[in-house]
Design brief:
With about 180 residues, the chain is of the alpha+beta class. The protein has one domain: Immunoglobulin-like. It contains two helices and ten strands; from the N terminus they run αββββββββββα. The chain has helices at about 5-15, 145-155; strands spanning about 15-20, 25-30, 35-40, 45-55, 60-65, 70, 80-85, 95-100, 105-115, 120-130. Strands 1-2-10-9-4-5-6 form a seven-stranded mixed beta sheet. Strands 3-8-7 form a three-stranded antiparallel beta sheet, with no helix packed on it. The termini are far apart. The relative contact order is 0.24.
């Protein structure tokens, strides 16, 4: 084995999450047992965030409003396993950390957030895949990990500028839109 392949192997073992980013959604693949961060970051200030999965009942994975976590209607499988990367959501960061993921955590997540300045709602969709056979990022074909992380960094750095083109809503009390699927 050459020094290059040993170095590349060590680098791939260091990275444990594969991220693919497109304009409409993000795809993340991780291994069972890992802590995974689902990115949701914009350049605007966020006043509330709802993380949900349409295929669950109840749908809520995490709800944060009025400066605090609200456990109402949280799906039981996420109790004590999820938190925001930054509870203050400074810099528009509403990224969700899911601890010790399992194959049951595979699915489509929606980060629905309220932009404070406009009181408008926007969402980001993330597909999380936890393969049952260990063929995740540490398995075969993991060269895409580095490329995926670079692409994800570029997308987050761009600030997801599409979030700025929202129509203002009336400044009523907290009411996330019904369409949370």
């Amino acid at each position: 084995m050459s020094a290059v392949s040993v170095s590349l192997g060590s680098t791939l073992l260091f990275f444990s999450v594969f991220v693919f980013v497109s304009a409409d959604q993000m795809n993340i693949t991780a291994e069972s047992g890992q802590d995974v961060t689902l990115p949701c970051q914009i350049t605007n200030k966020i006043s509330a965030v709802v993380w949900s999965r349409a295929e669950l009942e109840p749908k809520n994975v995490f709800l944060y409003q009025d400066g605090r976590f609200v456990p109402n209607n949280q799906h039981p499988s996420y109790k004590n396993r999820v938190d925001l990367r930054d509870r203050g959501m400074k810099g528009g960061d509403a990224s969700l950390i899911v601890k010790k993921v399992t194959t049951a955590d595979s699915g489509t997540y929606k980060c629905l957030f309220e932009i404070a300045e406009t009181r408008s709602w926007k969402n980001i969709t993330i597909n999380l895949r936890i393969p049952p056979d260990g063929s995740g990022p540490g398995g075969t074909g993991s060269i895409g990990v580095i490329v995926g992380l670079i692409v994800a960094g570029v997308a987050v750095a761009a600030g997801l500028s599409f979030c700025r083109k929202q129509k203002p809503q009336s400044p009523n009390s907290f009411q996330p839109p019904d369409d949370q699927d």
